[in-house]
Amino acid sequence: MRNDAIAIIGGSGLYDLGGLSDVREHEMETPYGPPSSPVVEGVLGARRVLFLARHGEGHRLTPSEVNYRANVFALKALGASEIVSVSAVGSMREQIRPGEIVFPDQYIDRTKGRPSTFFGDGIVGHVAFADPTCDTLRARLVGAAERIGLAHHRGGTLMVMEGPVFSTRAESRMHRQLGVDLIGMTAMPEAKLAREAELCYATVALATDYDCWREAEEAVSVGAVLDVMRKNVASARDLIRAVASEAAQERSCACASALEHSIVTDRKAIPAETKRRMKPIFGRVL
Questions:
Q1: pTM more than 0.85
Q2: Measured at the alpha carbon of residue 34, what is the angle toward residues 31 and 37, in degrees to the nearest 5?
Q3: Catalytic residues
Q4: CA–CA separation, 90 vs 184, rounded Å?
Q5: 36, 64, 208, 244: least buried by Cβ within 10 Å?
Q6: Three-class SS state of 214
Q7: What is d(CA 84, CA 147) in angstroms, rounded to the nearest whole number?
Q8: What integer pLDDT is reported at residue 157 of this predicted model?
Q9: CA angle 96–87–189, rounded 5-degree value
Q10: Are the CB atoms for 125 and 265 separated by under 8 Å?
Q11: Shortest CA distance to 74 belongs to which of 19, 127, 29, 110?
């Protein structure tokens, strides 16, 4: 199978992509169970596209219930080379206004207990993660936003909290003191798993609110978030179509070789069944 598809993981409000031709649906099974939803494959512009609804059909999975390993495994197995992750986030900065798009380049992981690695069961390894997003993919997203005139911000730090409850005012103020620009619930461990799978990864963060750090603001409500989110979805779809209209390029970024020297386990000690089961992830280096 060709490994040149662009995968889109849709977050809150973005449950389908639309505009795809030659559409087919994949009901997937992985070593971690089924992904959040069937993976929709189609063609958009010049690219083969894979679309997965992170929270499942009908938005039935909380951020903590999402099977992140199954999602990334399924996309890799179907030939993805890069993932564009769409997420609703809260803004921690006055200059990032609700309705605007941010392309963060750093994350702080404050999630608890989510399985966050493909390593284990006889394979031990460590990948570099100092720069957790793909600069090349992020630059293409920024360029597309500029071409179609979307209000956006390049770079920033996204803190990923467990959820599903929103922050207290004290927590929100603390996060600002830590230098956080955005807060969300789903980019981790998604980004870590994408790196282990040698996939380029970037977040399209859709600011929906100011969290609750602004004293004059009402506490964050899901109704207000979803109202802004619905307005943002059209922009997200336009952005994805603009990026997908570009032909696939040969990857020269470090993401494509993240596993090159990462596995420390003696190859002879790795169980044959683990090698077989994890071939879509580790096959290139095993």
A1: yes
A2: 150
A3: 209, 211
A4: 6
A5: 64
A6: coil
A7: 18
A8: 98
A9: 115
A10: yes
A11: 29
Given a contact cutoff of 8 angstroms between Cβ atoms, the answer to whether 42 and 24 are in contact is yes
* 135 contacts: CB under 8 Å, gap ≥ 6: 105, 253
pLDDT for the residue numbered 1: 59
User: Per-domain residue ranges for the chain?
Assistant: 5-115+133-252
DSSP readout, 223-272? HHHHHHHHHHHHHHHHHHHHHHTSPP----SGGGGTTTTTB-S-GGGS-H
* Rounded CA separation 196/255 (Å): 9
Beta strands 21-26; 39-44: pairing state: antiparallel
Two structure tokens written together for 142: 């920024």
Question: How far lies 111's CA from each of 91, 96, 206, in Å?
Answer: 18, 24, 20
Judged by DSSP in three states, 138 sits in helix
* CATH fold group of domain 5-115+133-252: Rossmann fold (3.40.50)
**pLDDT score recorded for residue 227:** 72
Q: Which of 202, 182, 187 is nearest to 133 (CA)?
A: 202
